[in-house]
Structures are given as structure tokens and as C-alpha cells.
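Q: Make up one entry.
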Amino acid sequence: MLGSRCQQRFSPLEALADCSGTDAHHTFTPERHGKIDWGNYYAAKTMLDNRGRRIIWGWITEERSVEEQIKAGWSGALSLPRTVSLLPDNTLQIKPSPELEVLRGEHWSFREIELVPSNNKGRLLLDEVQGDCIEVIVRFAHNHAKTFGVVVQDTNTITYDREEKQIAGAPLALSSEEDLTLQVYADRSIIEVFANDRVCKTMRTYHKNRDNLGVGVFAEDGNVKVKSVDIWEIK
């Protein structure tokens, strides 16, 4: 249960689906369906904490071959804890649990960045910021660029595609004047993305070269104002 609504979660193959609706006379009637996570996230478990919050964890699956997993000596990992609730329209709100903030170490902050692709300023790597164990929060002002987003670990792009209405391949329709806030946790081979507290996607990435781990922002086919970028080293 979330508030007065019933929720069902199930994991067909490697997806994690979610349905919300009503329960009357021992019959569940779904009214909305979606996914808890659109990436490498499976077999989630939830609990109510002592503050009445619904907390969820999932299993992060692999993309390496079985041989590579055996050679590495480990396979899969637990996700970060997430707090789930219902928005007024009964869609699911998903946020990283705020207790994760205790992991924040060194902090970098950038404000009012203008990305102008026509002047070869559509991609900006942020000076002196390197890391493969970081938290990133980027706030993009509403814009009309075709694509824009964040780069972590130098080569992993998290892109919003306006025509497809997708963030990193997951559906996210922004309203006409809606900003986009991306909260990204990059922890070695695991990247967890939260977009406007409505869409999550977990990804795997396997870097053999650990020398280039830069963080940046970019835009294509249109100017973008980045209101703020905050980056923390994860302790």
C-alpha cells in the first residue's frame, strides 16, 4: 500500500514492473502501470521504516559474460535504497533515500552554465572534477534543444531526447515549461539515474582505463542553460 492506493510489483524476466490501482472484494483493479526502473534492476524488496516511508532495494544485474564474472570473483550488487510514494496523479515518485547524503565527501559546485552548440560550446567537461565514485545533481532550465544531458566517467552519456521524450532510453515526457533535474550516482561499474523524481534507470559500465573519469554537460541542436551542477565524492 502507498497511501490509500494498492501497489503490485513483479519481475518478468529482468524487468521490474509496477501497477497501482484499487482493491475491492479481494480483486485488484490496475489503473496505471509502469516500471520501477528501466535498466539493470531486478527482484526488488520493500519495507516500511519507523517513519512510515516505503523503502525499496533491487538487485543490479550484470552485462559481463559468465566467464568475466567468474574471473572478477563477483556478480551483481544491491542498489542504493530508494524512497517511493505517490504523486497527486497517482504516478510513482522515486527518490534516493535522503540518508545517503551522509556519504557525501568533497564538494564541487558550478552555476549558470550556458551551452551553445553553434559556437562549439555545446559540450563542457568540468575542470578538476574526476571520479568513478561520485554523486551528481544537474538542474537544466527548460529549453528547446534536441538532446542534452550529463557525462560521467568521461564517456558515459545520460541523454534527454526531446523528440523521443526519453531520458537514457526511458520514457519521460516533460511539460511545456518543466525543467529537468538529474541525480546520478556513479559507483565504479554501476550508474543509477533519477530524473525529476519520476523515472529511474540503472546501468552497468565496465571501464578498463581508469585514467579518464571526467564529468560534464552537453547539448546538441539548441542552446541550454544549466542552472547548477553539484558533485560530491562518495566516501
Observations:
- Residues 6-96 form one domain.
